[in-house]
């Protein structure tokens, strides 16, 4: 893959990645049975809590964003 087709690593592209992951989580959760939707969202919250304990703020923040997307899809 040439450099011309790669996404630049900057704030705009990182936000786009986070938004795309949120959309993917939202769409995935909508396909699950209701009891699995809640479990999926809860798992993301648990994983975020573990990252908080490890001190990994970036991963914690991303997981919390994905948790919000999963919770919105389950509503």
Describe the structure.
With 75 residues, this protein is mainly α. It has a domain at 33-75. It contains 3 helices and no strands. The chain has helices at 11-30, 34-54, 57-74. Helix 1 (11-30) packs parallel to helix 3 (57-74) and helix 2 (34-54) packs antiparallel against helix 3. The protein is flat, with a radius of gyration of 14 Å. The N and C termini lie far apart (40 Å). The relative contact order is 0.16.
In percent terms, what proportion of residues is strand?
under 5%
User: What is the number of helices?
Assistant: 3
- N-to-C SSE string, H for helix and E for strand: HHH
Low-confidence parts: none
Report the end-to-end length measured between terminal Cα atoms. 40 Å
Class by helix and strand content? mainly alpha
Q: Mean pLDDT, nearest integer?
A: 93
Number of strands: 0
Gyration radius, in Å: 14 Å
For the sheet with most strands, the description reads: none
* DSSP helix fraction: over 70%
Shape: flat
Protein name: DUF1844 domain-containing protein
Q: Can you tag this structure with a few keywords?
A:
75 residues, mainly alpha, flat
In brief:
This is DUF1844 domain-containing protein. 79% of the residues lie in helices and 0% in strands.
Task: Give the SSE layout.
Elements: H1 11-30, H2 34-54, H3 57-74
Helix pairs in contact: 1-3, 2-3
């Amino acid at each position: 893959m040439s450099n011309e087709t790669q996404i630049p690593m900057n704030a705009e592209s990182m936000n786009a990645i986070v938004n795309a992951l949120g959309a993917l989580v939202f769409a995935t959760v909508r396909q699950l049975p209701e009891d699995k939707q809640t479990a999926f969202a809860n798992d993301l919250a648990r994983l975020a809590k573990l990252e908080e304990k490890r001190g990994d703020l970036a991963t914690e923040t991303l997981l919390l964003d994905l948790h919000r997307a999963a919770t919105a899809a389950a509503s």
